[in-house]
Every structure is written in structure tokens, then in C-alpha cells.
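Changelog-linked ticket: magnesium ion example.
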Amino acid sequence: MYNKILVPLDGSERSTKALAHAVTLAEKFSAKITLMYAIPIIPPYTDTAIDRVGHVQQSIIDELLSNGKVMLDQYAASFSDKNIEVDQFIIIGHPANEILEKATQEDYDLIVIGSRGLGEIKGYIMGSVSNRVSRHASCPVLIIH
Ligand SMILES: Nc1ncnc2c1ncn2[C@@H]1O[C@H](COP(=O)(O)OP(=O)(O)OP(=O)(O)O)[C@@H](O)[C@H]1O
Ligand SMILES: [Mg+2]
């Protein structure tokens, strides 16, 4: 029933919990898991990459990309003892849009996502990413509270 599971991760406790559910499902269904992290777009401040601001901006992006890779590697290591096929996907863009596009374009069967993330503000049940993804996804979405 579930062959491909997409797990969007932002390093938050809730997304870590979502991954644990995805791992359990993947074991049961012999599914493949994709660990995904979207780096929110930094608006471009300059036209060229040759001035100082452009350089600083590029080095911030490089740093964010390499931190993202470390984060996803750690997540992958957390269940490497299980016999589950896993891959990783990091992209720069609007998190909800990128998650939706990935799920549709690559025919994922399920998205397992945290209800809240790093930006947790008390009083809301869902964050903006989980909200948008659950409303617009082309496949089932499992939201972990
Ligand atoms: N940048 C991201 N890349 C991948 N997955 C993400 C990203 N941001 C959030 N998620 C996923 O969405 C879930 C819900 O996070 P969301 O961002 O919607 O809540 P929040 O941070 O509490 O609220 P908001 O960001 O709206 O202030 C997370 O647990 C995670 O699974
Ligand atoms: Mg967030």
C-alpha cells in the first residue's frame, strides 16, 4: 500500500517523532523513505555574486546546505540498523511548496509530517507548513502531534 514515504524534517522534536512513525510503517510495508529538508529562500539582496553581500549570502547558503546534510545524515543514522531503503533530498525553496511538488512529481504514497515545527508558537495546533501540505497534497498525509 505504501511503497514510497516522504518525511519532511526541520530538526524539530515533532518532525523527529514523525520519522519514528515513518520508520515503523516502512518496516511493515517494505517501503522506501525519503528524508527531505527545504531551506527557506533568502531573498536576494544584490544582482551579482561578485560584491561583498553576494559573497556573504552565498556562504550562508553553503553553510545552511552543509548543516542540512549533517542533519539528514544523523536522521538516517538513527535507523541504519533497520533494513530500510533511504535517500535524502535537500532543496532551497518554500518548504510547503517544495514538499508538495516533490510528492506529486515523484508519486509518493504517503507524507509523514509533524504537526508543528521549529517555529512553535503556543495556541496553534498546526504550523503553516503542515497546514498547507495536508490541505494540498495529492497523497495521504499522516500528521504526528
Ligand atoms: N524547512 C522544512 N523542511 C522540511 N520539513 C519541514 C520544514 N519546516 C517544517 N517542516 C515539517 O513540517 C512540520 C510542521 O512544521 P511547521 O513549520 O508547519 O510548524 P511551525 O514551525 O511550528 O510553524 P511555522 O513555521 O508556521 O511558524 C515539521 O514537524 C516538519 O515535519
Ligand atoms: Mg516552521
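Closing comment: Example verified and attached. The longest strand covers residues 32-39. The chain is about 45% helix and 20% strand.
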